[in-house]
Design goal:
Blueprint: E1 2-7, H1 10-19, E2 23-26, E3 29-31, E4 35-39, E5 45-47, E6 74-76, H2 81-91, E7 96-102, H3 107-119, E8 127-129, H4 137-145, E9 148-149, H5 154-182, H6 192-208, E10 213-221, E11 224-229, H7 240-250, E12 255-267, H8 275-286, H9 290-302, H10 325-345, H11 381-396, E13 402-413, E14 416-427, E15 458-459, E16 461-470, H12 479-487, H13 496-501, H14 513-522, E17 526-529, E18 532-535, H15 537-545, H16 548-551, H17 553-567, H18 573-593, E19 603-607, E20 614-617, E21 622-624, E22 632-633, H19 648-661, H20 672-675
Parallel strand pairs: 1-4, 1-7, 7-8
Antiparallel strand pairs: 2-3, 3-4, 5-6, 8-9, 10-11, 10-16, 11-14, 12-13, 12-15, 13-14, 17-18, 19-20, 20-21, 21-22
């Protein structure tokens, strides 16, 4: 008898098969003496479309909403049905005695495997779980030696099902309701809508911001500059006359050292990377999108085996990993990091609670390098950048703290107070390896040196300089700052009790946030302008029309918290879905009762070549304003119905197709995976 190993992707399946001494035996699987290895192509099975429950749901009609199936059904995804048939035939082979689930070790990976097995007719029941955090041969072998009972992950599967069904109920119902009610191509979801609301709110704050001029008075001395402070320690003057008078009063006067304060300080290294923090830093430093960062890190994990599992929300490792640290350091030393690694290898490697904490590791530990030999020439430039970030953070967290002496200097000029700060570096510590990557609107730490002075000493002021400035509006979100907002939505919630209750939640998960951002861009709600995320006119309209409940982070953050409890076995999935159904019914009621209108404010002078309606203008393309047509120009996707270079005949054919099907089935008919907040 043999064990059937089910991986999530062909590349991973082939690697598992190689380690298990399996060879290709047919299309879509490998086989050896003890194992048969096959794979999915991501999701092979998904929740069924609405029309499976009732034929009337083929048509988008507000009167048919809400759609609340009593029990959700599954279906095989047509595009990958051939591979599903392969897996199903293997599940039903008489010589297969057990299934080893080897999909990604997380919530969605569990869903991928269990749904395939359910529709594949797995009746024999014996199941085990491969749970590994790196794709090295040693990790794979160790994982197969220590397989877990699949029942240990039943609650994780229940949480995954709860997430999928909740997204179906809310996403499909609200999207259809908005589209039908306002006759516009609109879609909403329990994560993407509150995320978009954050971006829109920030843009509104920027637009209504009224800048105010202010002045600062600086005393430029030899070796340092001191800034004037009022009695409340504010350094800004909003009265120009007061500023000019102060300048004239103090001009030509010397300063007296009023006090010098010195404090020894230390700063520990930043924590190791989880996915969100890695995406933030890659965006800050390289302008890389969250999606591209995940893609490159996934390649480093799957193909090159150079880093551990990327879709993690932990920034710690476990105690049992401490013995592996030396070997990991030895390998990265050979990849050009020798000067940074050697100081660590020359002594016993010390690990602190900032890096090693079993209690703060859930499904997976932090992203760190593996012990696999590194061949940087095999990596693309972007893969090298991501690897460099991960390696330097890994090395830095093992270094001692950055130590410095903080100096605060207070000067008096004609009874007016001036302040200068600086620091004397005592030990660079981890900063010799890595630097802190800040957002553009964050102030740099003061690292200026202060000359040796004594209390009461007279200091010559070389120049008094009045600097004019004005208050600045809040910055637009970058992907880095948006990821932070999605991870910590509590700061946008005024209710203190509720804010505290959702600290363990968030908008999406580390594994899904990149896709949420991309969906907002694909739906023409957000456009990239350099690093900034700029909402479109369509975004403002959607946020105006969508029910209040869905645009605030409280709802989805609470859902994530409850899904986490389901995964821990502390909450029942049935109760959760019952509440989601009630929420869906209420949302649809509010949309139906709305008296608002969808207003198109970005119409161009161009007419759609298919239906003749005006085209809406976005930065790099035009989109037909008629939701039933949806023709696009200025992109690779010339139209929603046909692609490629178009002749007059093609346009006429497209027009007939729109006329034929437009009233029956909207062009924006949902693709489940695109609506779901996966």
């Amino acid at each position: 008898m043999k064990s059937l190993v089910l991986a999530e992707k062909p590349s991973v399946g082939r690697e598992l098969g190689r380690v298990l001494n399996c060879r290709p035996r047919g299309k879509g699987f490998m086989e050896g003496n003890k194992h048969v290895v096959t794979w999915a192509l991501g999701h092979l099975v998904t929740l069924a479309e609405p029309e499976v429950y009732d034929v009337k749901f083929k048509y988008w009609n507000l009167d048919y909403l809400p759609m609340i199936p009593e029990k959700m059904k599954l279906k095989v995804i047509k595009q990958t049905s051939r591979q599903f048939k392969t897996v199903k035939s293997l599940l039903q082979r008489k010589d297969i005695s057990e299934v080893i689930i080897a999909t990604d070790a997380g919530r969605e990976g569990e869903l991928v495997a269990r749904w395939i097995m359910m529709l594949g007719g797995w009746k024999k029941k014996p199941m085990k779980r491969l749970w590994i955090s790196s794709q090295t041969d040693s990790a794979i072998k160790d994982g197969f030696t220590n397989l877990k009972p699949a029942k240990n992950y039943d609650n994780l599967f229940h949480a995954a099902v709860g997430r999928a069904e909740a997204d179906w109920l809310v996403g499909l119902n609200v999207t259809r309701a908005l589209t039908c009610k306002f006759d516009a191509r609109l879609n909403a979801g329990r994560v993407q809508t509150p995320t978009l609301a954050l971006i829109v709110k920030r843009e509104e704050d920027i637009v209504k911001f009224d800048p105010v001029k202010f002045w600062k008075l600086n005393a430029i001395c030899t070796g340092f500059t001191a800034s004037w402070l009022d009695r409340e320690n504010h350094d800004r003057m909003f009265d120009r006359t007061k500023a000019d008078n102060l300048l004239q009063k103090l001009k030509g006067k010397d300063a007296v050292v009023s006090s010098i304060t010195k404090k020894a300080k230390s700063e520990s290294a930043p924590l190791a990377y989880d996915l969100t923090e890695l995406q933030r830093d890659a965006n800050r430093r390289y302008g890389m999108s969250a999606k591209d960062t995940l893609r490159h890190t996934q390649t480093l994990y799957e193909r090159f085996k150079l880093v551990t599992y990327p879709r993690t929300d932990s920034r710690y490792i476990t105690k049992d990993m401490i013995p592996t640290l030396k070997q990991r350091l030895q390998q990265v030393a050979k990849a050009g990091y020798s000067s940074k690694v050697q100081p660590l290898l020359q002594q016993e490697i010390k690990s602190t609670a900032r890096f090693v904490n079993d209690a703060k590791v859930s499904d997976h530990h932090a992203i760190i390098p593996t012990e696999i030999p590194v061949h940087l020439n095999s990596l693309s430039n972007d893969e090298k950048k991501i690897y460099d970030l991960i390696v330097k953070r890994f090395i830095a967290v093992l270094y001692p703290p950055y130590k410095f002496e903080q100096i605060t200097l207070i000067l008096e000029i004609e009874n007016e107070t001036f302040k200068a700060t600086g620091r004397i570096v005592k030990d660079l510590g981890w900063r010799a390896v890595s630097v802190v990557i800040k957002d553009e609107d964050e102030e740099e730490d003061s690292t200026r040196s202060i000359p040796g002075l004594t209390k009461g000493q007279i200091v010559k002021v070389n120049e008094l300089k009045l600097v004019a400035s004005q208050t600045k509006p809040p910055s637009r979100y970058t992907e880095a700052t948006l990821l932070t907002a999605m991870e910590n939505p509590g700061k946008f919630i005024e209710d203190e009790e509720l804010r505290d209750s959702i600290k363990s939640g968030g908008l999406g998960t580390p594994a899904t946030r990149a896709d949420i951002i991309e969906k907002l861009i694909r739906g023409y709600y957000v456009e990239r302008s350099g690093k900034s995320m700029v909402p479109t006119a369509k975004a403002f309209e959607l946020i105006k029309l969508v029910p209040e409940t869905l645009k605030h982070p409280e709802l989805t953050a609470e859902w994530e918290r409850r899904l986490g409890k389901i995964a821990e076995g502390k909450e029942n999935k049935g109760k959760f879905i019952s509440d989601i159904k009630h929420t869906t019914i209420e949302l649809i009621k509010k949309i139906k009762a709305s008296n608002l209108k969808f207003e198109i404010t970005n119409l161009s002078k161009e007419k759609c070549p298919i239906c003749g309606k005006p085209m809406m203008k976005f930065t790099d393309k035009l989109v037909c304003s008629d939701r039933k047509c949806g023709h696009e120009t200025g992109s690779k996707k010339e139209t929603g119905l046909r692609t490629g270079r178009k002749s007059r005949k093609d346009y006429q054919m497209d027009k007939r197709l729109v006329q034929q099907f437009g009233k029956q089935k909207s062009k924006e008919e949902e693709t489940l995976g695109d609506l779901f907040d996966f």
